[in-house]
Design a protein that fits this description.
Elements lengths: L1 H29 L5 H23 L6 H12 L2 H13 L3 H30 L1
Helix pairs in contact: 1-2, 1-3, 2-3, 2-5, 4-5
């Protein structure tokens, strides 16, 4: 149990650092007007989750799931930040942008997960 917790903790630290760096990069690229960092990590993290769930299951690597899926991707993806960003847009009166942000985050992240799964299934076939 302690070894698994250590894997999750280490992975979470790495994922959180990657999340922060993604946010910094997107702010430099696109500015502060839209939560591009959160949108980016949610979509990219969902695609990675799709890739990992397939490859770990097919290659007998589920013992790596606590580190990679719960830790790294759990620390990297930011649904709580997504929620805060959506509410902040809404409370600033930018309801159309808030709705577009919520819809694009959910739909594109789910599509990215499907794409990641399909890509890895094709790759491993």
């Amino acid at each position: 149990m302690l070894a698994t917790l250590a894997q999750v903790a280490l992975g979470g630290a790495l994922g959180a650092c990657a999340r922060h760096l993604t946010g910094v990069a997107t702010r430099h690229l696109f500015g502060l007007g839209f939560p591009w960092g959160t949108l980016t990590v949610n979509i990219f993290g969902s695609a990675l989750m799709g890739l990992l769930v397939v490859v770990l299951a097919k290659k007998g690597g589920m013992h790596l799931a606590p580190f990679l899926m719960i830790g790294v991707l759990g620390g990297f993806t930011t649904f709580s930040s997504f929620s805060l960003d959506a509410v902040a847009l809404w409370e600033r009166g930018e309801t159309g942008i808030a709705a577009a942000y919520v819809l694009s985050s959910v739909v594109l992240s789910i599509l990215a997960l499907f794409a990641g799964m399909a890509l890895m299934r094709w790759w491993l076939a």
